[in-house]
Each structure stands twice: as C-alpha cells, then as structure tokens.
C-alpha cells in the first residue's frame, strides 16, 4: 500500500512505518522526522533540520542548503 501526501512546504513532517515500507519525503521546507523498521528512508531537497532513524534499512539524505541546526541520522 502506498500513500502520497501533499502538504504546505513549511510544515513539520513526522512519518513512520514498520515492515517492508519505504519512506520518501521531498521538497519539504520545514522540519522532518522519519522513523522506519525494516525499510529505507529517503529525504531530499531539505533546508531545515531533520532526524531519520531506521532499523534494517538505508538512510539517504540530500539538502538544498546547509541546515542551521543539528541533524541526526541513524541506521
């Protein structure tokens, strides 16, 4: 099952999934928090701080510019 959400660019996005689901977040200008178990996380075109954590999956992050606050990424 796939979900596609369109939200205002500056919103704080929090997403998570378990077992075989992948997370992709693109073009969000607000803070992003993503958590996954048994799947990957891809965050692209970010400009603010982000946190991504996965167990048994890859984390792929791309920024448009350097964030001004600390970011955390775990796998």
Automatic annotation (TrEMBL):
It comes from the Bacteria. This is Adhesin domain-containing protein. It comes from Dawidia cretensis.
